[in-house]
């Protein structure tokens, strides 16, 4: 028999700011920073490898913080938190700025293609 779905936590704008700030701070904890750096180095800026190596580490780091606020301790909790942040980004400039900072911690800088869209042949 399937269990009833867990209630999604609801956070106010202020609570979301606090949690988002704690998530960002968690990435600067030396142990977490080392784990992320190791995953990035192993991925060598290959987007496929980033998804395989960096995404799981970053998800674990976020889960450690958000589980204290009622989000489940699986990838689904991180996705729900991300949706909540996205919802508040348009309402709160501080959340929008923190969201950009978090994304910069997770994703490598993307190089823009040359004007004209041509991709140089190798």
From TrEMBL:
One of its GO terms (cellular component) is cytoplasm. InterPro entries: P_C10 (IPR026317). Keywords: Cytoplasm. The keyword Cytoplasm applies. Transmembrane segments: none annotated. It is found in: Cytoplasm. The keyword Transmembrane helix does not apply. Pfam families: P_C10. It comes from the Eukaryota. Its main location: cytoplasm. GO terms for biological process: post-embryonic development. Belongs to the UPF0456 family. PANTHER family: PROTEIN C10. This is Protein C10.
């Amino acid at each position: 028999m399937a269990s009833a779905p867990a209630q999604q936590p609801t956070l106010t704008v202020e609570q979301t700011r606090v949690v988002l700030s704690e998530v960002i701070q968690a990435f600067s904890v030396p142990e977490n920073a080392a784990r992320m750096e190791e995953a990035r180095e192993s991925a060598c800026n290959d987007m496929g490898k980033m998804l395989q190596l960096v995404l799981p580490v970053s998800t674990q780091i976020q889960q450690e913080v958000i589980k204290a606020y009622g989000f489940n301790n699986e990838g689904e909790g991180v996705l729900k938190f991300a949706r909540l942040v996205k919802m508040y980004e348009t309402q709160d400039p501080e959340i929008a700025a923190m969201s950009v900072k978090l994304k910069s911690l997770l994703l490598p800088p993307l190089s823009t293609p040359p004007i004209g869209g041509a991709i140089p042949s190798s």
